[in-house]
Design brief:
Layout lengths: L1 H74 L2 H10 L17 H10 L1
């Protein structure tokens, strides 16, 4: 009788060991999944920082380009060009000082042949 009573207890402990293995595997799987998700979130955050850095750089370059265009337009304005020409001693051309040439190559050949 004592043997019969021990056998169900042995079977019960054996069943517990068989139930623990899937539980341990499930816990390990979920732990690995959690670590993967944490790693994925860290990588996403790194990419977000690098995208933000690049966006700031693009914005800064657009702003610089805008400032440079304004400065170029200012320097090429007729008033600025007139002031700079005056400081260099340049004056408005008198009649006869400006000669116009035909830019076509055929006109240049005929003018050279006529001389």
């Amino acid at each position: 009788m004592a043997l019969k009573q021990l056998q169900p207890e042995a079977e019960a402990t054996g069943a517990d060991h068989r139930g623990i293995l899937p539980l341990v595997l499930a816990v390990l799987f979920f732990l690995a999944l959690a670590l993967f998700l944490v790693w994925l979130n860290i990588e996403r955050t790194k990419l977000a920082y690098s995208v933000q850095t690049l966006q700031n750089e693009v914005d800064a370059r657009w702003e610089l380009q805008s400032k440079l265009l304004v400065e170029r337009d200012h320097l090429l304005s007729p008033q600025q060009l007139g002031n700079r020409a005056a400081t260099m001693g340049l004056q408005i051309a008198k009649p006869g000082q400006i000669r116009r040439m035909d830019p076509s190559p055929a006109a240049n050949k005929t003018s050279l042949q006529g001389k």
